[in-house]
């Protein structure tokens, strides 16, 4: 009987206790040498490989590990380095790598944006400033390391050429074939060297194949893979797609490669398989285990799906694997010793998902009877949660359906009342919400969680931080202040700790960007409001100043998209539950005198489905949820929202439909692109385009900020415009934050004076 292979697409790079993150930040802070950084991160990488080997995974990915981002790794491997960094001769290769991602004082960081519809961020390649060349065969280095250190015959993972180029910028659409032509010989060189080293399988990631492809895209895909097949025969190429079913199914599955990886968790891959079949000369790598959520798989259901696929494809041509890289889930459940046993029993993080993959591969090889006990255990664990008190059905959806979702007056009438109440200058200045969380802030929170200081002592410490920063903000001259969010670990996790239906893990970290790791809360039951969440801190901060202090909330769409969501009911039903809970919190803030309330939705665009025919339903429900949360306030209460890097043209109508009074958008790394969206679309509400990049430690000078503002004011009337940083300042150091905000306020004053002077002349 032929063995059915198991495979993995990618493994979390952060380590069980974020050892990777800690090493990176020590290096950036000058507390670790480059050699020490590479040694420590190698240990994390090898531990991940070792665990995959121990779990019986046959095709173990190598080269999926990164010190920052896999797209940036590909750029650097092929010499795609912007000129502003090429000129920094004093930097080592590694320092240049990090400079591209984070920026330095003399060079602005490259743009960062969302990886498809996930909360992972990648560094956007800039193709217009360098000619590509193979600097280092990175996959070969990692293949040799795994083989020599652990005896693993790894499967090198490389971002495929079509997707890599599509993710970049700096070229016109008609130049796409030329870029493919330039990079194709480099890919062939990499593959030839891998073949010479004895590599049997290579995974080329092409998630763009799950998006809409033009005829020209398909022509280029055929050219690429036909050329590779001709130039590098004898090496097994697996084209790996994920996050959705593939577009242009018949064209893609017939490309001349050894295997095609399909996602059977998201999209309609099974229906495509049934309708169009599958080539008899290649393997189907079936993504059966969800690589993006944390629930155990019903192995009885999964095995049934595999049997259905086997009837179409043939059992001996199936490879069992997750639906995507496990980069998007935490490492292991073994350290989660404080969870409700019923909930924990239904969880599967990366390590547990690999166990599920190996079990299913074994069952398909040896028969269902060989995994009878494992199937029974999974079914029992899932049933225990579904039948628990946490998931009992209530009348909540019927109640939510009756909630008003319209403000009492239209914006043009509300804004008159708001201006009269708030008395702000033109071009008002503010920040997005969070202020620097220093090592001392984190230390005090940890001491409190460990019981080393009392609740009262911790609360007083937070009050002292708020008092200090209210004074700093007043001294800087900001017009609208924030309380700083010193009490919050994360903008979603914090609300997950306060709302019913959520729980927060101890070690359930995932990478968001760079060394930034987040701990998404898990929505396991019905969501509801229990008691005020942010009122105490907001009211205290407002008591310290005559200026207005914004109430700060995370919006319903972002809480949904940045959480691990229960999978037994519709995500939209969960979204409505979150929105209704936040409505109660917003009403409580208003009742306590908070006149400006910001409801952040940085993840609205990232949740947009990859298939355009699914956009309308998602956007309609996202807009409705935001309005469920915000529509009940008085007309004079000003609702703000904030969004992160996105292609805003796709969602412009939805942004307007939110009916927020003020929107701020994270744009400093892609300022020109966003401004062009406002050239093509009319937006009537007030808006702040981020005027400097908070993801970089560099301090922008006044002229740089003025230039960004003046570019925007060519399109957006200055009476509609707010001046603010790109995003929250939580990850920044205090000195650089104060210096940057001082420059921002001074820039605003100078432009304000110039604009007012121009009006009077």
Quick recap of the structure?
This protein has 28 helices and 23 strands. It has 761 residues and is an alpha/beta fold.
Cα-atom Rg, whole angstroms?
A: 26 Å
- The CATH class of the largest domain is identified as Alpha Beta
Structural class: alpha/beta
Distance between the termini: 88 Å
Q: Give start-end ranges of low-pLDDT stretches.
A: none
Total number of strands? 23
Number of distinct helices: 28
Question: Can you describe what's shown?
Answer:
This protein is of the alpha/beta class. The protein has 28 helices and 23 strands. An eight-stranded parallel β-sheet has the order 1-10-9-8-7-6-5-2. Strands 17-19-20-21-22-23 form a six-stranded parallel β-sheet. It has a three-stranded mixed β-sheet with strand order 12-15-18. The longest helix is centred in the C-terminal third of the chain and has 27 residues, at about 735-760. The chain is globular and about 80 Å long. The model has no long low-confidence stretch (mean pLDDT about 95).
């Amino acid at each position: 009987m032929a063995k059915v292979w198991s495979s993995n697409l990618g493994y979390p790079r952060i380590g069980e206790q974020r050892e990777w993150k800690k090493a990176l930040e020590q290096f950036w802070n000058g507390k670790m040498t480059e050699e020490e950084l590479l040694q420590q991160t190698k240990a994390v990488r090898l531990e991940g490989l070792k665990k995959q080997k121990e779990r019986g995974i046959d095709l173990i990915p190598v080269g999926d590990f990164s010190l920052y981002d896999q797209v940036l790794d590909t750029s650097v491997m092929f010499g795609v380095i912007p000129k502003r960094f090429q000129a920094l001769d004093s930097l080592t290769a590694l320092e240049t790598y990090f400079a591209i991602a984070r920026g330095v004082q003399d060079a602005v960081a490259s743009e960062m944006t969302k990886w498809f519809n996930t909360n992972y961020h990648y560094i956007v390649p800039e193709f217009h400033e360098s000619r590509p060349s193979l600097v280092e065969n990175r996959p070969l280095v990692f293949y040799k390391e795994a083989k020599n250190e652990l005896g693993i015959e790894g499967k090198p993972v490389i971002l495929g050429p079509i997707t890599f180029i599509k993710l970049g910028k700096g070229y016109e659409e008609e130049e796409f074939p030329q870029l493919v032509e330039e990079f194709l010989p480099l890919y062939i060189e990499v593959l030839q060297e891998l073949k010479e080293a004895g590599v049997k399988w290579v995974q080329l990631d092409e998630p763009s194949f799950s998006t809409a492809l033009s005829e020209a895209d398909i022509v280029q895909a055929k050219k690429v893979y036909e050329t590779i097949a001709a130039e590098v025969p004898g090496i097994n190429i697996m084209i790996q797609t994920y996050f959705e079913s593939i577009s242009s199914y018949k064209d893609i599955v017939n490309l001349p490669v050894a295997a095609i990886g399909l996602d059977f968790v998201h999209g309609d891959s099974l229906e495509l398989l049934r309708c169009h079949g599958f080539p008899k000369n290649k393997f189907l790598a079936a993504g059966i285990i969800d690589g993006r959520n944390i629930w155990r798989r019903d192995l009885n259901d999964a095995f049934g799906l595999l049997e259905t696929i086997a009837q179409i494809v043939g059992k001996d041509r199936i490879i069992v694997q997750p639906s995507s890289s496990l980069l998007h889930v935490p490492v292991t459940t073994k350290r989660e010793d404080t969870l409700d046993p019923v909930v924990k029993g239904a969880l599967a993080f990366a390590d547990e998902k690999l166990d599920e993959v190996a079990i299913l591969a074994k069952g398909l090889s040896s028969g269902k009877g060989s995994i009878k006990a494992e199937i029974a255990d999974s079914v029992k664990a899932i049933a225990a949660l579904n039948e628990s008190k946490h998931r009992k059905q209530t009348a909540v959806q019927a109640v939510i359906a009756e909630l008003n979702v319209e403000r009492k007056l239209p914006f043009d009438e509300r804004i008159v009342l708001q201006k009269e109440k708030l008395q702000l200058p033109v071009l008002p200045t503010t920040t997005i919400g969070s202020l620097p969380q220093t090592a001392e802030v984190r230390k005090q929170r940890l001491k409190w969680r460990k019981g080393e200081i009392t609740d009262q002592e911790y609360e007083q410490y937070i009050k002292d931080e708020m008092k200090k920063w209210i004074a700093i903000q007043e001294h800087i001259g900001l017009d609208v202040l924030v309380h700083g969010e010193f009490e919050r670990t994360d903008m979603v996790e914090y609300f997950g700790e306060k709302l019913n239906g959520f729980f927060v893990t101890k070690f359930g970290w995932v990478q968001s960007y760079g060394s930034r790791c987040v701990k998404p809360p898990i929505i396991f039951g019905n969501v509801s409001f229990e008691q005020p969440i942010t009122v105490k801190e907001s009211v205290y901060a407002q008591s310290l100043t005559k200026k207005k202090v914004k109430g700060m909330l995370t919006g319903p769409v972002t809480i949904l998209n940045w959480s691990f969501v229960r999978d037994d009911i519709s995500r939209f039903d969960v979204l409505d539950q979150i929105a209704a809970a936040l409505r109660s919190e917003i009403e409580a803030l208003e009742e306590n005198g908070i006149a400006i309330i910001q409801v952040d939705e940085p993840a609205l665009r990232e949740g947009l489905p990859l298939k355009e025919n699914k956009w309308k339903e998602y956007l309609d429900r996202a807009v409705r949820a935001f309005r469920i949360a915000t529509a009940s306030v008085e007309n004079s209460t000003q609702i703000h929202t904030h969004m992160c890097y996105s292609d805003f043209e796709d969602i412009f109508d939805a942004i307007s439909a939110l009916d927020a009074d003020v929107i701020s958008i994270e744009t400093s790394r892609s300022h020109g692109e966003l401004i062009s969206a406002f050239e093509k679309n009319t937006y009537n509400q007030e808006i702040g385009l981020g005027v400097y990049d908070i993801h970089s430690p560099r301090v922008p000078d006044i002229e740089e900020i003025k230039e960004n503002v003046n570019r925007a004011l060519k399109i957006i009337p200055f009476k509609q415009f707010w001046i603010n940083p790109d995003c929250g300042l939580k990850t920044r150091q205090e000195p650089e934050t104060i210096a940057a905000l001082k420059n921002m306020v001074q820039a605003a004053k100078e432009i304000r004076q110039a604009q007012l002077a121009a009006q009077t002349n």
